[in-house]
Amino acid sequence: MRDWKLLAEKVLQDEEITDSEALEILECHTDGLLELLYSAYLVRKHYYGNNVKLNMIINTKSGFCPENCGYCAQSRDSKAPIQKYRMMDREQIIEGAEQAHKLKSGTYCIVASGRGPSKRELDIVTSAVEEIKDKYDMKVCACLGLLKPDQAKRLKEAGVDRYNNNINTSENHHDNITTSHSYDDRVDTVNHAKEAGISPCSGVIVGMKETKQDVIDMARALKELDADSIPVNFLHAIDGTLLEGTDELTPTYCLKVLCLFRFINPSKEIRISGGREVNLRSLQPLGLYPANSIFVGDYLTTAGQEGTKDHQMLKDLGFEVDYVTSEEPV
User: With a threshold of 0.85, does the pTM exceed it?
Assistant: First the structure.
């Protein structure tokens, strides 16, 4: 059986793991899982200690999306019975920031469905962000779809610290998930954010009928993009979407995926995101040995765990909330 601690030492010496080693992580036998988790924790601890970053989402616009992403309840092809509403006003977005502040979230994520923001939507978001930055000492992340360079510049000027646009899956598997935009469209948006001076956030959804090699390719693509924050979502298949009924994940496999992302992106914020409650289930606490960040509250169209339970989980683990101020590096 592989000595996973030796692999951790290799990573801490700035050596990249091989595809063969990456595959071994994803295929690790249950007998070696605790050692794998501990070894991933050694890497995580080196960069983040026992601190956990908290993030909260506000879904400022739900549904009405022209894209055909197979996982999404807000897609044009989705028949899921979700609540639909147009863009919130700035006051509602600011109220959401107050709730994020109460939950000790270091990052407030403003999310809107759609291919990309209209001028009106961008005006609302930038106006809200300016006030939020004046009132609360927290980071603001925006996730508004595909961006043009001038839109990224406006968000930066308003005070947006981070921009999220997930690659979602591997380049090879992308067209099996959506065809209304390209993989390169998503990569270009991340690069536009970086060029505007905004911290790049990009992640994945695991469990969408991809291969293990696809998962490895995702982790490597995000290393190439140099994403500062990497949300790892686990598919919560919603009835009415094209991926309805897909159920490929086990709690132990999800843990191995988190370890893989830590070994390939050792210094980055690895965030356990959507689907953690239904896929990790009782093993949720173990996910924070490789990962160092979680969402609190609800997601876009699915419910999350109560914030009080998340705080209790962190306390029980002996971890501490890392309430990063906006003056510190992202």
Answer: yes
